[in-house]
């Protein structure tokens, strides 16, 4: 080979270190952004790679939406998927969901010990036997606000299942129903970023009470899950 052929080298190609045996090898990037990769891959170190290894801990699964990873507890487990999920209490696992409001009374649970992005919130509530909160009346809106107030958390943000993905029309992802045309609870001036902030949260500012706000879907905030209680 000769001495030069046996030496490892380190070069810089478009800001990324590359190593190899042949000093005259041209290394081209596979990607410059996530858009160059498949939806389930991300552009990491200029290569399209699986973004999932690492972030999720025990009894949690990593999933990918539009190049971005998120964690969700496995069925039958609850807690923070980033530090490890624990087996859910039997009473919680027994709550059933049919998707029919007439089948039982809606019960809302504010998950106040961890924050996740919108897609992880959808997955988390499903693994708990419920779904991310939807609002189909003024009474339901009041019940959610009551649940938030009972948590004692102020000036924070909480996910609902509201979104205008992918078609631009606001719907409740959990039920597939559009937002009611004759009822809303948006903060004045909201929603105000239709192409950027595409998910619906409850938000309080300056201790003035919680109202609806559009939010970037990958922001990590508290989820609100909904369940149906049944009269036996």
Automatic annotation (TrEMBL):
Record's keyword terms, sorted: Disulfide bond, EGF-like domain, Signal
Disulphide connectivity of cysteines: 52-62
Residues annotated as domain C-type lectin: 103-226
Entries under PROSITE patterns matching the protein: C_TYPE_LECTIN_2, EGF_2, EGF_3
Cleaved signal peptide residues: 1-15
Domain EGF-like: 49-86
Top-level taxon: Eukaryota
Name of the protein described by the UniProt record: C-type lectin domain-containing protein
